[in-house]
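Why do we care about 3D structure at all? Because function follows from shape, and shape follows, mostly, from sequence. That is the central idea of this module. The next example makes it concrete: a single protein chain, its amino acid sequence, and then its structure expressed as tokens.
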Amino acid sequence: MNVEHRIFPSTSARMAAIAREARDLLGQGCGVMVATHFSSDLPVVEQALSSAGVAASTFATPFDLQGIADVLAGDAPFAALVLAKLLSPQSLAGVRPTTGRQLAWIVAQHHPTVAGDEAILEIVRALPATSMVCFYDSLDTPLFLRFGGERVQHLWAGLNLEQDQCVSHPIVTRTIRQAQEKIAKQARSNLDAASAEAWFRQNLS
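And the structure:
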């Protein structure tokens, strides 16, 4: 399983990149799962995908689990947008993707905690399919605004990147992990929230 982290300067650049990647992967015949940790991100990602001509099915409630299982078990290329907290190895235990199935997972934003992101990786590992995973984020999200953004901003400036380009580097991966570990030590709880901003208010104020 190949895991990558891509950081963009802004949410608009991040969403445009997610949509382009989903469109390109569909063109290659992949099944594309776009996952978000927070329900408030669903309409934003939906709009970005739609603008890029990507017709994605959205799964946002526990009643959608069978629909998720059906698209994963099929053999046709698809794009699906799913609220990550619905998924678990147990809920997808009976799913058997077609042999040789190529699945691509796009995570629209990091969770504030390591555990949140690891939950998605655990799901991917449990599915018997060839998978790649790419976590997207941007410097204007609460995670970067509160923790670790300065280091990435310096890296960005040194590389002289355009606004639609991303940083994908071991330094970035380490910075994100260190920020998440710092958050875990400071958080008084890990209550579910509709947005990243609300998560920080509820758990880290």
